Amino acid sequence: MKDSSLTPVKLMPHPQIRDQVFQKLRRAIITGELKPNERLVERTLAEQLGVSRTPIREAIRMLELEGLISYLPKLGAVVTQVSNEEVLEIYRIRSVLEGLAARMAAENITPAATNELMKTLGELERAAEQRDLTGLEQEHRQFNDIIYQAAGSPRLYGMITTLVDHIQRYARVGYSQPQRIEEATREHRRLAEAIKAQNGALAEQVAREHIDNSRKAYFQTLANRPIKSHQTPKVD
């Protein structure tokens, strides 16, 4: 198992070690550094992270509760492979929740947050123009986070970010569709302008359209790839 993010952790009291191991492994899964169906071997991870196997074992249990890790016969703990049906379900739920977040953000956003949103949009557009996928993902997360925070609903924020974390490792797939980066960037500008104008109904409509278009791009890309165990669900 090779992963640049899995470097030794700083020694500290046990609960903190476990939590730090958990965060390192979680981030490696979400970013795709640990691939779906990749085995998590306690001994190997303990050596990589410079800790005992106990916090590794506990962190893996925590990841299992989040659905990021599964146990397979004869293999043990592996990174969960999310099925096409589960991805479809997540996109559909996100469409509703992110539409609500956009509407609430438009109704509640402060001038300072609006300025930050437009500034981040500019950085996102620059990354898109340069085809910088890593920078684009970073600015996209920041752009979304500003909107989620501006909605002013901690419960909604938690629900959306959990869904986003589960699908983030698949996010680049749709960008391989011709012109999808340009289309998505225009959708982000429309969304930012609607929120800036405090037009809640329009913001909700644009946010839902954006998620739905991302879903379609994902499955259109997937339809052109060999699928081992699941058929591509009908997207509309």
Automatic annotation (TrEMBL):
Family annotation (InterPro entries): GntR_C, TF_FadR/GntR_C, Tscrpt_reg_HTH_GntR, WH-like_DNA-bd_sf, WH_DNA-bd_sf
Keywords recorded for this protein, A-Z: DNA-binding, Transcription, Transcription regulation
Superkingdom of origin: Bacteria
GO molecular function terms noted in the UniProt entry: DNA binding; DNA-binding transcription factor activity
Gene3D superfamilies linked: GntR ligand-binding domain-like (1.20.120.530), Winged helix-like DNA-binding domain superfamily/Winged helix DNA-binding domain (1.10.10.10)
Record carries keyword Zinc-finger: no
HTH gntR-type domain boundaries: 15-82
Any one Pfam family match given in the protein's UniProt record, by short name: FCD
UniProt-recorded name of the protein: Transcriptional regulator
Species of origin: Desulfoscipio gibsoniae DSM 7213
